[in-house]
Amino acid sequence: IPAGLGNDVYSLTGEPYGAAVALDKKLNQECQNAAESAGFARDLCAYMRTYWGSLYLDKYIDGGKFPKPDFNFQSQICCSHAKWYQHASKIENTPVNFIDVSVGPYKDLTEDRLMYVVNQGLESIEWMEKITGRKYSDELFIEAVKNEMRSTSLWAEICTLNKAKPAPLDEKTMYSLYVLATLSKSSKWCADFYEECRDEVKDRVARGIAAVPNERCRVMSDTQPPWAFLKVFRYLEEYGAVSIGSLYTFGLEGIWETKPDGSWGPRTTPMQQGIEITTREQAMRLYCDWNLSKPQWQHFYDPRLKTEMMKTIVKEWGVDGVMLHLNRGCEGLSLGIMENRLGLAAAGIPVMTYEGNMGDEREFDLGRTQNRVDSFMETLNLKRDFVNA
Questions:
Q1: What is the pTM of this model?
Q2: Which CATH number belongs to the domain containing residue 372 in this structure?
């Protein structure tokens, strides 16, 4: 939505910033300590604590002071989002606005629920014009909506290519690719990149190029990984196991639909349907409907929805086992995760769990996690045959 303010609009981001800082162990620890010293508990969102700590320290990951935004603007899907930017705006003395998108799962979407979100989006445009003193460009907004739909549909299509055996991508690599959508999915360059990436991954499938050359087992993970310890995915390779992705990797930025044959695939864009977007109101309606169908937003309402989506991935991507990250750093995506475990186990799917935190390495034990992986691989009748491969 802010793209309509001009071609010089840039997002500082929230979650991507927290994930980036997680790789800088020294700065991350300083940020966590600063947030805790201000009285915030360790069981809050790790990204949020990192962001606040960075503000308290006035230190930015790229060096220098933390840049002050002209305004904070955030959709509210998890219980942290409202307080995150409410408090950030208090520290920075910055205007803030929110869009409440918690209208229930997409399968239960009604006209009233959709318009509740659409009207907030339209009102936010008027607010931005008032705050910035700029005239909003509907043309730029419509272009941004089209780009975002292209980006997110293409990312879903890229993920479907991992149904191939051997998988052309492993999840550690996918983290480097999906993140572009978290940063700038409404940009033309992002949509164009995913189109080129899709073609390259198709070529890898056609030529049988594997992400893990010795692939003999396919697993899927869940929620954000412990960003400071992505070596866990390389450890899997020593068993000949590849993580083909997860609901998080597929559905945080990918937009999906059930195809006529019952399979899961990229959602058809309005442009592909021949729909011409000409007005602000039409663009906002299509944009809100598009985002409300996001898979990663559905299970905030009922863990059974997530279990069914995970079972779909297991079936269609040929998954042999599931690794559930009991992520202490994200109460939103960890909500109902043990119910997911029970649902998957009841369906006869091998499941392992490990504890950790996506943004606070103090709550992740690498040795213990590797031991759990060892035990899980043993149940799948696999040995570490490729330690030096």
A1: 0.96
A2: 3.40.50.11900
